[in-house]
Amino acid sequence: MTSICTAPDCGRTLDTKSTRRLCHRCASRLTAQLHELQWQLPHLHACLYPDRSPTTGSIHGGRAHSPLPARGDVLNLLGAGSNSTLADPYDEARGDQDGPIPVDTMLRGWAEALAAHIRLAPAPWRRPGHTWVAWHIAYLPWTLTAEWAGLFHQELTDVLAHVRRITHTEPQRHVQDAPCPSCEAFGLVDEDWANYIECVVCGTLLTRNEYQTHARRVLPALHRIALQLVMAGTTTKDPDP
Length: 241
Ligand SMILES: [Zn+2]
Ligand SMILES: [Zn+2]
Fold this sequence. Notes:
Bound molecules: zinc ion
Strand content: under 5%
Mean pLDDT: 83
Radius of gyration: 24 Å
Largest sheet: 4 strands, antiparallel
Order of helices and strands: HHHHHHEEEEH
Number of helices: 7
C-alpha cells in the first residue's frame, strides 16, 4: 500500500524506502520554515517596541496619548501561552488565548510531542541560550518520521504568515535562467532558506549542484537560439536598399 504525505492538501505519495511521513518537497519546505523562523525571531523582537524615537525634551515632541509600551500583536506572538496542538486537538485550552498561538509555546508543544514520539525523555529541555527553533532544527530527522509532521508544517506556515506580516520580510524568490528539466517550463525558483531549487509548475526539486550541471548543459544552446532570433529580427527590420 502506498502512503500519502501527511501535509494537508499535499497528496503526494511517500518514498517507500523511507520512514518519513512527509514527501520530499514538504520535508524540504518544513526545513526551510524552521531556518526562516530562526532568522525572523530577532526581527520580531525588534518590532516589539515600535516607536523608540525621542518624544521628550521638547514641548513640540509630545503626543496626545501615552505611548503603548509594546505592540500587542508582537507581544501575543512572543509571550507565554497555553498548550500545543497535539495535547489540545480541539482548541479548548487555547480558547482564552487572544490571536495566534505564541511561537515559543507552539514550538515547545511540538518538542513535547516529539519527545513522546521518540521516547526521548519525560520532558524536552533546551540548553541555556538556545532557542526552541534551534532545538527543532537539531531534531528535524526525527520530526520527519512523526505522524503529525504535516500538522507541524501547517502550523509553522500559519505562524510564519503572522510573523512575516509584522516584520515585513519574507523569503526572496529568484527565478532561474534555465528551464525545468522535467516540464521545460521556465518555472525554476531558488527561494531563501530552501534546500532545493523548485519548479513552481511541476514541483520538480533540484539541488543547487544539479541545477548548475543542468544549466551548463542547456543554457549555451538557448543563448544561441536567442541570439539567432535577435539577429533574424534585425535582418527583417532592415529596409531594402
Ligand atoms: Zn507533501
Ligand atoms: Zn517543471
